[in-house]
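Sanity check

After download, print the first record. It should look like this:
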Amino acid sequence: MIEGDPISRILYIDLSRRRFWVKERSELFSKYFGGTGVAIQILHEECPSNVHPFDPKNPIVFAVGQLNGLFPVASKTVAMFKSPLTGNLGESHCGGRSSIAIRMAGYGAIVIKGKSETPVYLAIHGDEVYFRDASAIWGIADSYTVGRIIRELELGAGVRTIMRIGLAGEKLVSYACVVTETYRHFGRLGLGAVFGSKKLKALVVSGRRSIKPGKPKLYREVYKEIFEKAAKLPLMRKYHELGTAMNINPLNRLGGLPTKNLKTARFEDAEKISGESFAERFLGRRVACAHCPVSCIHIAALREPYETEPYFYRTKMISYDYELIYALGSMLGINSIESLLKLIDEVEALGLDAISTGVVLAWATEMQEKGLISEKEVGGLKLKWGDYENYLKAIRFIVAQPNEFYMDLAKGVEYAASKHGGLDFALAFGGNEMPGYHTGPAAHVGYLTGSRHSHLDSAGYSVDEKTVTSGKKLEAEEIGKTLFEEECWRQILSSLVVCFFARGVYTPEVVVKALNVLGYNLNIEDLRGIGREILKSKYRFKVREGFNLEKLRIPKRIFEVETPHGFFTEDFVRKAVKVYRENVEKEG
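Expected structure tokens:
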């Protein structure tokens, strides 16, 4: 670590007693760098075995890494907690200003424990921590409004992060998210609900420290190399031009775009909601996370008339990306960008995870289509593919929970299907709703085995896509081993904490150079060993909390719909999962 770097300071906050204190944990940060590596160690220490996710003893851990604030595209914060959606490890990453704000406030991690008796928001300004009364903003459904109010009340404009929940978090929806800087999120696995369970409406962090590398000449050389790659690599340019929405058309052509609850993997109207169509018709501006030259955040400008004033219009700025277009677009048969943006806007305002929301509604639509649930159970709605108005109402019902069915939907598709039927087409993996890739067996093995059950754990979809174009036949053993090794490496990136979009920039060789600036003398094999240790630590936490790879439910729907690799079997997937498990459980 850099001499005098405050990265090893951990801020502990007890909401129950309204106390805070700081511990110096240099041994954690020197060994695991920060981010995921440090967060999982703290979770082992602070989270009691088998605690309920809404118990005050369930901690929230925010951790940043040693490259945050020093190098481009090292722009993420890791959050860890016990997930109310899966009942197991919760891990979510977020960009925006969060990592720089925490780093410059003088901390490598923030640990929030306990539960406030009354609504509260936390304001951390450098060494000072304030417990602000949030009674006036508790109950405000709209996360946009909460953000605007706090911006007027708190210091630190331009250098602060504002994390907050909407009504979904207050209502303990198991996949409620935490919104930061309006357009970024701790999206998956229900951190917003954990905030709500603690009566924590928001968290503001600001700081004005600076970091001075000890090897300025080497620092400049490595910085320039990383910056130029981030600015000039073709893939990074595509992230800037179209963003991840660029995936819609290629995946649709491949036959890997989940559509209408994965009844098919091609959407006849994909072009209408493609990244190109968004850019041509609605792109308002691009935004970057702090210390990132790429600007991959794409904001649509939606012009709407006021209902009571003819010829008067308002323009809403709404962030979009591939996963949102998939989950609230093709999965629901929505073929209009205007309709899709209205659904995204509602999800954003209420503070829901868009992927889980879309998958839950797609399952409910098919359940109603098959006559397995009645119109009465769905609150008088007739859910139909492409009917955005009823989906808009259903999103609000998930948060309001007017009856038992919506209370069940608010706990995720795995829970709802276990009560109401339709498990064969309930698209959840380890309890987490399916991401937007039906590219072949490796994608689904990745969802099952990944520590977060996310496409970003081990990029199985990438294995599928590369082998489709090469014509190579996928083997179960190779899939299991490849995904394990990739997820091990990603633990290094998420400990530093580097945006995964820049994984082609931060190659193992570049990471070794960047760490040398910080005084480390490590080689690539050293890093891979640390990555394996971090992944195994996460796996141990999951097993401690009852996780069992062999007992995972696999939705039968994924075997019924052809992929770019054709059809595959449950036996094939189980073999690949077994290989992954053997690797993650291997000693040494």
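If your output differs, re-run the checksum step. Summary of this record's structure: The longest helix spans residues 476-496.
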